[in-house]
Amino acid sequence: MSEVRVALPTIRKLEEIGKRTGIFGWVSSVDHKQVGILYILTALGWFCIGGIEAALMRTQLIVPENRFLEPYTYNEIFTMHGTTMIFLVIVPVLLGFSVYMVPLMIGARDVAFPRLNAFGYWIYSFGALLLYFSFFAHDAPAAGWFAYTPLSEKPYSNLQGMDFWAICLVIIGIGTTATALNIIATVATLRVKGMSIRHLPLFVWMTLVNSFVILGAMPALNAACIMLLVDRQLYGHFFNANGGGSPVFYQHVFWNFGHPEVYLMIIPAWGMISELIPVFSRKVIYGYAVVATSTVAIALLSFSVWAHHMFAVGLGHTLDSIFAAASMLIAVPTGVKIFNWIATMWGGSIRFTTSMWFAIGFLLMFTIGGLSGVTFAVVPIDWQVTDTYYVVAHFHYVLFGGTALAVLAGAYYWFPKITGRMLSEPLGKWHFWLTLLGFNLTFMVQHSLGILGMPRRVYTYPNIPEWNELNLISTIGTYILGISVLIFLWNIIYSARRGKIAGNDPWDGWTLEWATTSPPPVHNFDDVPPVKSARPLWDLKHPEDPDWLRKSKKARAKKGR
Amino acid sequence: MALNLFSNKSKILMSAFVGSDAVFFAFLITSFVFYHGSSKGRPNPWRDLDPATTGMYSVALWASSGTMWLSEQALRRKNPRRVRRWLELTFVLGALFILGQCLEFKGLFSKSIYPRTDLFATTFFTTTGFHGLHVLIGLVMLLILRGLIAGGFGREDYQIEGYEAAAYYWHFVDIVWVAIFFILYIWGTR
Amino acid sequence: MTTGGLILTGWDWEPSVLIGCGVLVFLYWRLVRPRRRREFALFIAGDLVLLLALVSPIDSLADEYLFSVHMVQHLLLVLAVPPLLIAGLSREFVEGLLRGPRLARIEQVCARPLLAWVAAGAGFVFWHTPLFYNAALAHEGVHIVEHLTFLITATMYWWPLLHPMEESRLSVGKAVVYLFSASMLNTVLGIWITFAPLGSYPAYIQPKDTLGALSLIRDAWGISARTDQQLGGLLMWVPAGLVYFSAIVAIVARWQSEAEFCEVIEPQTGERNGR
User: Fold this and answer.
1) Interface pTM (ipTM) of the complex?
2) What is the DSSP secondary-structure string of A459-500?
């Protein structure tokens, strides 16, 4: 086998990774690495803002009958918290990692359409700023992050907050769609020779499948927002019962977006986990084919279960039952993946890096969130706990305990590649344990609060002893989370300048991004190693036992030769 | 009939985009169908539509797809003058369609029929309005293509692929109009 | 009339159906000469499902009483019977068939995926338009044509996916698009039927009740005409959609695990593959 020249480790400064240096260099960049970093850092910034909003909410709820926030302000805060976290933090950070890592993992020089890539980022940033401008325009959106009609219509939301919401979501959605298109084109056309679609790293596969989900889901959001705007600005009757319209129709259109959206927010996270658990268990992923196929199943099914958000709306038992069955079904391919990841760890030689800790945390927290989600598929249970804190607990377990922990795991895994320096492990461990503690304190008790009857989206609650204690615990948990975030921020700022030099391949990884310098040069690779399996670097480092030989031996044995 | 939809990155991008946009129009058309008959106010609100006249302008739009296809053929045969001619004709036909839409809207406004008038009008204006917006964007795209051709674009293979990918958008806008015309103007006015 | 009574007495032993199913098995046994037990079992299963769909109480309820049961019958005819029958054909039989030039020509024309998709889709839409659906309920001859159309176009549809000669099957990408687009058709029509007001299929609103089962259905089972139509639409939309989705997942799963039979590719030295 010919010698492959892997670039020698050099220390490249993060500021100099682009073609031009300085602010102008970053603003005008179309390099996928710089665009990716912009996405991630911007999302991190909005995460802090969203976190402050959460802290404000929880402070208002620390004791009953509190007047820390006025009712309408509280409504604005919870609406903006949800909208921010979903549209300004989670989706962009996942897009950011996709845009940074996918070209590297497939051995490409950049994405298929670099300018479109940059456009996607800047339009997201613009939409985000415009959305927050609503605070300065004296009316932020206040009808909840899904803006049900008729509350979001006039005269119930008479000021301009909801218009900001609808317009900005369309704008940001354009960026998301553009990036999804770009990823599809990139994976379809720029894979290095030898990387067949079946040899894609799972992160790339999941991102690819996710891009199709984006293309199917965003149009529904656009439709819902546009219909809302027509009703509000042109006095249309889409959702106005007096004019013959139907507020329930809004829910149908919105949740046709909303449900695939939640899968949108977790699938790339699953991809990250599928990359780093094998590396930190020193064991190949168990059941690549199963993980890949179940992702396709979930992507398809995600479009057939939206009405489970509407069980309490009165669609009729027949409709409810069918959607309940489909919703239970979708839990299966999801659960299958958990088993695959655990099986990967089983018998492996686990390295308990901070990244791995976050991944383990993900497995536990996401499972809890998934279980509480399945309970909602039982319609009578849903009737009891919908719109209570049980729902809030559920989605925070899947989105924070799931996606956020996975993204943090990915951050610790890929920070060395992106910046050339390692994040501090001791600080990382503090970050992890405080996060786990704070998160569970905040949200575990909310399951009970929900079952005890506390509704969500209320600015205060009466003096009920059981509620008082649980709310207090929940708020304290939030403050602990805040401290953990500060530790993380400090870790990033410190390590980017003074962290240990990482070198090309600090984790002894197996995918192509580790075959170049940290950070990679503008052109990504000097030489791409040969690709014959899903783990090209394993094959390179273990020429006596490469994946492709093992597989074809297995295949020959199967055929009985 | 092998459709070369996936032979190059521009075509993949445009095909995927068109698929996504089709879902958007599906929602708008669904709202029209769902609400057909629920409109309060005017009895038989569809009587104010004029399928015959709109049909004429629709023929212009559909013909423009044909002329666009001819310009693609000419580009493959490396005949820039023909390309320019068919492209310009496409633009004119598309602009004619927009003119027809504007006249139609103007006529409805003069009868005091606005999106606010009733639910039929709301769904009608939203669906046809967004389609018209897509046609306008398409016209801008045609102008850009025309400018590029004038600058000598179209000699390389990948440029031809890109041109054809752009044409996909135009054909898509036409196909959507087939659905809109038949559902809103034919089915919707019976 | 009780549920048990309906199950026992509600059979319609239509001679043409019995003969047809019997002939099918006979022809299969004589012409295909199945050697593998699995194929034989699948074909027989397909034939049994066909029989059941057309003579069991499903048929009696479908013809007169319940739109939703008629939907179940059609779904069996379209999504269960053809795949099972095709899976029962042995590779050798099909290879032999296709050696004959005329049959090969027919297969080439009819089995083109685009044509098969359009034929199945057109048949589907055609027979659900109220005019023709109600005509089939009113006239037995039209009903037979309806069922035959479904069976034939569905077999055309499944052929490119389940072709006994694996190399002639659709590639994975095309198969996914083929199946997904068909499921969209099901979804659109299913949603329309679920949410549409009553009246498109009037025969089910006031059934003729020749079996005396109406009170059983309306009172004991509690299925009103409204629920019946909703259920019918939902069955067309969700469970049928799941069949398409399952087919997609099965094809993707197979394709993914085939990677085990690894293509050994010569090592490259980092050529970029930009098109």
Assistant:
1) 0.94
2) S-----HHHHHHHHHHHHHHHHHHHHHHHHHHHHHHHHHHSP
